[in-house]
Amino acid sequence: MSLAHYPISFLATPALLIAALLLDRLLGEPGRWHPLVGFGNLASALEKRLNRQHTPLMARLMGLLAWLALLLPACALAYWLTQLTYGWLLDIVLLYFAIGTRSLKEHALRIYHALAQQDLPAARHAVGMIVSRDTTELDERDIATASVESVLENGNDAIFGAIFWFVLLGGSGALLFRLANTLDAMWGYRTPRFLYFGWAAARLDDLLNLIPARLTALSYALCGHTRSGLSCWWQQARLWYSPNAGPVMAAGAGALQVTLGGKARYHGEDKIRPTLGTGPAASAHSIDAAVRLVNRSIVLWCLVMIVAYALIGACHA
Questions:
Q1: Which H or E run includes 266?
Q2: Mapping DSSP to helix (H, G, I), strand (E, B) and coil, where does residue 84 land?
């Protein structure tokens, strides 16, 4: 987004960001007619049509074609509309739809309250709404671990990644990131069905997340126990199977001074994951602490942006 795009250019981007965050805080995610639901349905229909019995190379090409067909027209239209006279209103709306701050907090605290009341069935059901692992046999520690991991990772995927691309490209950038992340969540699995077709969605999401994930990790470290956050990031992130989730979760676990990772069951099979963080295992209170860490990081991003754009404005005055 150009700095000259709005009348008070040096404060435009922070103002639009704060407006979108306030809109999300007031309204949360739409209960009905959420655009991402329609996008998901369209993506599923296209995947069923294109994901046939192809060779690995052809399956990768079909996956890339599907990704481009779903994202390019939507983002190009969004960019064109945001260049119109009142395009700044659409910028706010697009960022509002791209972030999920209130939804993430509500999901996490639902699990926290269920654990606080020793209601394991309710806690398992609630955590199953935000993680992809099997939850039917999770104990309290496993539920807390899964919840904290989800809060930390979704802090990047559902908040900071979208903000980063909003700063660079405006509302169309936030839309690009959110749609790409949605396709990765739908197709980016190493299962027989998506191993090749979902390759492009997974790799492109990794690329779009490369810088935001590390800025998120730094934010977690600065807003929590900084020494532990930075140390765990440096020592443990490379051990994680995801190049972007590793820094985010390692720094977040260190900042919270809890231990994450370990065994988890996915699609009926146990997966032994590296240990992240330091200190005791996650508990119900760790969930609330993770939510507060994300909230402090949001405040940090807003303050940094206000100061940065004010300095840019002063230099151009």
A1: strand 259-266
A2: coil
CA angle 175, 177, 181 (to 5 degrees): 115
Tell me the pLDDT tens digit for each residue of 70-101.
999 999 999 999 988 888 999 999 999 999 99
3-class SS at 263? strand
Name the residue type at position 166.
F
- Give the pTM: 0.91
Under DSSP, the state recorded for 225 is -
Average pLDDT taken over every residue of the chain: 91
For residues 232 and 126, give the distance between their C-alpha atoms in angstroms, rounded to a whole number: 29
pLDDT band at 121 (very low <50, low <70, confident <90, very high): very high
HSE-up of 155 (CA within 13 Å, CB side)?
Answer: 34
Alpha helices in 136-283 (DSSP H): 140-155, 161-169, 171-187, 199-223, 226-236, 245-256
Alpha helices in 83-190 (DSSP H): 87-98, 101-116, 120-127, 140-155, 161-169, 171-187
pLDDT band for position 35 (50/70/90)? confident
